[in-house]
């Protein structure tokens, strides 16, 4: 994980560019870059050209010795600043053997020859980015042609923002805080799954899939029949093979790594698969022993929390070197302002879940771990949230999955990336591997739905994932009911937040909330409290508009509120708030 800032179109201002102005802009970019140095504490680099400046803060995971950025092409004409990991970089390197002279072993350097290969083709940039398997955001400057290319990964695992100043100069940055306070006339999130080529007027979509339409999956081969009996083992096996491939590929690392282990299904599956491959070094084709053969797992929670108890069971079964991180409610409350500063949102669910993760990341970094694998994305791929029990039919179920996938960058991916990056730790998310997404989203929705079985019981969420990996999971973890992360770390955490914010925000203040915050007006005192902190840290209107704001319950989209009339009247986003679902989900 790294961070970068780019400034382009330096000559667009009314004042002609000269050495004095160029130095002034360079100094500005460096100041902006310092604000995100937590993302890349290992090295800083900067490129200054006649019409572009790129600054990079590096967290060295692959090729720590020679992979400094910005990267420069073999002919010195193309400059690249990238944040993320390209997992198939060795395969791409072989494609350019004898055609391009690589200067480093950095996984991100392959972006440069791919750009050279595709830049003149029709739809070339779509083809170029499709070749990348990974999580990424990058800014590439072609100094010979004086053009630039900005791109972000398909789901938006890696954050990226864009802005324009009064002179018309264009900026990109890995986090909002780098752009805030720089006299920008507009700040926006750069859209996931898009690229922006400077000769075009706006970002273009490069990521498009057939499964976005229900018609593409409604007749897909089923794993089970209407009675819940398995009729196609190969569908289940395909899920297993695809996720194992994704995990193995993402173990690419030249530094110590670990796994986040909450004790829920998703993190336990990732930990178990990781343990399967951890003893061999992936970069050698698993032919040589790993540099750090013992896998370390990390869990966070209040004393006696559901997650800590379940995580210990999972770790003992899998055989990881397990670490429990206990926090107190007061420690979490004290960290709230720092958390909101780093995650750059006032969304209630995100703040609740990010705080324990932020505290956990600090401990992970203190132990010398620089990368962890996590289980984000499974609930969106397989309908794991408890509200999916109310999906009225397969079409509604699948279309909600598509909506959830399109919003991951606003919530779970944002939380996981920025909470960890606050302490210089990289998070990888195998469930969101591009190829595995296609496998999961092309499944027949009836194999994912929480259907009523002939015996009167309701099938548990994510049944197909549980079945695919039941032989490598402890049974009581494999079939454990879904918990939201902010609930699982300890129920008193959320209760205390609600009580504390109710005291901190007076009735008089809350009554004037629409005047205080006319944009995305807070609905509860808890949300008002977070919004107040955010506004002090990020005072511009552009910053407020860059934060997602959507009605929902238990992580649902606004559209899914139509599934139950009572949900639209709720102001509590926790999964516990869904009466008759959390405790009674599996009763007849």
TrEMBL record:
GO biological process, one term: asparagine biosynthetic process
List of catalytic residues: 2
A GO MF label: ATP binding
One Pfam family from the record: GATase_7
The keyword Magnesium is assigned to this record: no
Residues with site note (Important for beta-aspartyl-AMP intermediate formation): 376
This enzyme's EC code(s): 6.3.5.4
Family: Belongs to the asparagine synthetase family.
Name of the protein in its database record: asparagine synthase (glutamine-hydrolyzing)
Organism: Treponema succinifaciens (strain ATCC 33096 / DSM 2489 / 6091)
